[in-house]
Amino acid sequence: LGLIFEPEAFSPGAAPQRGRRTALAEESRQRGTTVPQPARAAPGPRSREQCTGGTVMERVPINAPQGPLGLIFEPESTVLSKVRETSPLYGRVEVGWTLVGVDREDVSHMDGSQVTKLLKMRSHNPQGRHLEFKKRSFSVRELPGDTAVEAPKPHVTVHSPVMDLYAVLWSIDVLVQSLLFHKPSGVGVYVAYVLIAFGALTCTAHAFHLEWRRNVLVVALALRLVDVGLRLPMSWDSEWWALQTDAALLVRLLTGATAGRTIQLQMALFYLAAGFWKLNTSFLDGASSCASVFGVQTAARAALMLGGGDDQAVLDWEAFLAPLAQTYTPCIVIALEMSIALGLLLRPNVGVRVGVLFHAINAWAPPAPNNIASFSVVCLVRLVTFAPKAAADALHLTMRNNSALICAGVAALLGAAVQQFKAGRDPQFIAAVGYLVLAPIVLLACRGTFPGGKRRVHAPSKARTRFVLIALLYCATPLLGVLELGAPNMYANLRMRAGSNHLLAPTGLLFKTGLLGAETLTVVKTTSQHVLDYYPGDCTEELKPAENRARAFASVGMRPFFNYALKRVIKCSYTKNTWRPFDVPAIELRRILGEMSAAGKAATLTYKDGDRTIQVGYDADGAQVKCTGCTPDDVASQGPLPFWAEKFLVYLPYPVLADGNGEMPCAGP
């Protein structure tokens, strides 16, 4: 209450002592003597503890004029983080004050963006706005000789409970990806080791809520960006998603802000693009669609489980499930991805839950090699940014109260994952188990997300706008015809060059301008083992379950399945990479010839450019020794790719199939 009492007033025997002292004083005046007074301590400076113990929250009414006020609030509360010098309230309010009322309306439950919008809506009121702030003030009575102590300023941090929770889950994701999936080389090995160390440190610092956790996260994010950059261009689309969200968070942390809303918008755009680019004739063709491949795989495994070892029962279940999966899976996938995108934008409480369900299906339903649990974990972590403040606060408090237990659990799970990986367990299965562990945490954090579908209104931000524009440009890469490996069109059967199969949009526009060279060159044959190992990437024999997958595929007329990037990105091997001619643009053929030259073995490659057939050969030293039918303008006569093209312009081989089906086969990712 800020009340200061005299010590004698409440000490035992105070009243009698005080009465006796008064009587002695009266007697001394009558006798002309002096009564000795008790010694009093010399005055000195008051300590910060004393001052802090005597503080109160004082309400300060402010009449603000109409127009902009130049007040900046913390993202997750109504605490003032900045007062612009041009503000009409400059000098009247201070950083650290909490806005609790606007025109007699309680705003203490709002966040920074909501109260900013409210002030803007009432900025045209000619009578101005009545604001009420709370500030921390001292109630300690200053005695003569006391030294005034400045009130401690509130600690302002860019780390909200949501960001703390996000950082813990993000670090787990980084550790899982680095330990189980990434295959760095050269200097990337050392970067990966340091990244693993800082990933573990980030998890620990945020679990224990240490003061320097922000700095550790900044370093870890920077290392993560370097790690992905060194592994480009052979990276999944999920890594491009993570690259952009991590860059947004890093920049926002360095500028003293949070990136929750930026990541939300980025993820919504990525899902929207993933669903949009699947609206093409090949993805909707049951025999060609990547979704049908996954669906029939899942149907084959379900038939084995439901058949219970009875061969006839298995056949019956296959005959029932496989056609359904082939027909309806493409439409279901498009509907789910579009629902996630629109839900995250309009009704986050729906979008988050549909997203968790969708990625659970991706992690567990399709058998290998299409159980893409690693992608599911990446997306799941970023969905936690939609957690409302109340739920995140509660979960954050639980995390802080059980920090040691959480760190021990994470260490135990990662140790078990590495042990299983070394024992030969499929890393995607390990990631799928990790998904089951993390998904309830995300759902718990996002419970009550914007009840009733109500959306938060966020204050505009130039940095956020820039990152959203970058995300939009990234989503348009199929339209331009660049970044085919890594574009947000995963497993979409999308033809990005030599014509478009999309129902609504053209693709490969930059090829039409001639800036990227020829759109289609057909590699007919080669003696290079390097090319034979990677191209065209026939993975049909890798599809599980081995017991009945081939029979299920044949029963519904499924076409071969290709995934050139499977060996490129995660260095897995193909059991049987059946050779077929394939189409690539001129840029990708230059990459192939450069790698063929550097392979250290003599080899030849024959390709067609329109009606012309060209054969090029290299010796074991990488020197070109043969170029039949070449002209100075041909790919075989050009040098290696420039660095920027090497890093960003990767194109998938389009296999040439002689089955009479003109649709694009599944040549994922």
Quick structural overview:
This protein is α+β, with helices and mostly antiparallel strands and 669 residues long. The chain has a 6-stranded antiparallel beta sheet with strand order 12-11-10-7-9-13.
Structure explained in plain terms:
By secondary structure, the chain is an alpha+beta fold. Helix content is 49%, strand content 10%. The chain contains 23 helices and 14 strands. It has helices spanning 14-31, 48-53, 112-121, 161-180, 187-207, 213-231, 237-254, 260-276, 290-307, 311-346, 348-364, 373-383, 389-401, 403-422, 427-445, 462-475, 477-480, 509-512, 529-534, 549-556, 564-570, 586-598, 643-648, and strands spanning 55-64, 71-73, 80-83, 98-102, 105-106, 129-138, 521-526, 562-563, 582-584, 603-609, 612-618, 624-628, 654-655, 667-668. The strands form 4 sheets. A 6-stranded antiparallel β-sheet has the order 12-11-10-7-9-13. A 4-stranded antiparallel β-sheet has the order 1-6-4-5. The chain has a two-stranded antiparallel ribbon with strand order 2-3. A hairpin with a 5-residue loop joins strand 11 and strand 12 (624-628). It is globular, with a radius of gyration of 34 Å. The relative contact order is 0.09. The model is unreliable at 6-25, 33-53, 139-143, 145-158 and 449-459 (pLDDT under 50).
Low-pLDDT runs: 6-25, 33-53, 139-143, 145-158, 449-459
pLDDT averaged residue by residue: 83
Please state the structural category. alpha+beta
Reported for the largest beta sheet, the result is: 6 strands, antiparallel
**How much helical structure, as a percent, in the residues?**
40-55%
Number of E strands: 14
Strand order of the largest sheet: 12-11-10-7-9-13
Shape: globular
> Over the alpha carbons, how many angstroms does the gyration radius reach?
34 Å
* Strand proportion: 5-15%
What gap, in angstroms, lies between the N and C termini?
A: 66 Å
What's the total helix number? 23
